[in-house]
Amino acid sequence: MLHSRLLIYLDTVARCGSIRKAGEQLNVASTAINRQILTLEDNLGTPIFQRLPRKLVLTAAGEILLAHVRETLKNMNLTRQVLEDLKGLKRGEFSIATMVGPISTFLPLALADFHNTHQNVRIHVSTYGTHDLVETVKNGQADIGIGFDIPVDNSLVVQTSRTVPLGVVMGVHHPLAHQESITLEECNAWPLTVADASMAIRPHLEDLYAARNLTLTPAIETNSIELMRQMALSPGHITFLTPLDIIQEKAEGKLKFLSLNEHGTQPQTLSIVARSKISNPFTALFIERVEYFLQDYTSASV
Prior knowledge:
Blueprint: H1 4-16, H2 19-26, H3 30-44, E1 49-51, E2 56-58, H4 60-86, E3 92-98, H5 100-103, H6 107-117, E4 121-127, H7 130-138, E5 144-148, E6 157-164, E7 167-171, E8 181-182, H8 184-187, E9 192-195, H9 201-211, E10 220-222, H10 225-233, E11 238-241, H11 247-251, E12 255-260, E13 268-274, H12 281-299
Helix pairs in contact: 1-2, 1-4, 2-3, 6-12
């Protein structure tokens, strides 16, 4: 691996076309620069510069090496910037556009965890439906978008994604809570609280019921994950959610998640999207924190 000082020497000599001029620019003895370049050429077994009477010109091997040198220097500068930000030398902020689902479930936990170690970072969070979330991220009003089943859009880059199973949630004292899986016919025997048409869960349910030639007849329709959870806690009631929607209630032993015993059941896809590659170091760190968070919860047995 090339020493960082040597990287700067090579880049400067290539730009100046002269070891002497590079030495003057860097305030380093030209003999010291020349000695390190000669040593490197000897180690590589090939010349880096063609030494002409009035200037130095890169050889073919030198051109390849210089591309690596400049990419490495660029990455070093980016890393130095990130480290400065993380030392608290600068305050930061970023914005999130999210759906109702994440903000009602795992997102508050992830935000609190991130804030514990980055108290100098301000985060703006707003909720949207699917279409408005995509448009908000595309037009730059939010740095990232977090949601379930975000449609593919060439203007957006998926930063991370994870599939989560859709199933049935009920109180631990429900007569069917001893089961590990459940059919739609069994579900229909109980009062159902289901997501309305504005939520990403609903198309999954409609497809499942249509495939079985069954009618989805909810007792309650809502766009509130919290209401669905509360209704599942009510005696006899059940709802359709993912394990991420009941993290706290499951840990407290209040709600039970049952897999759907139906052919063709499709998981939901939770994604974080952005307009381009993330440049804000705090946004990148938050995404990384969410990835670890989701890995812990989705890999756990439901």
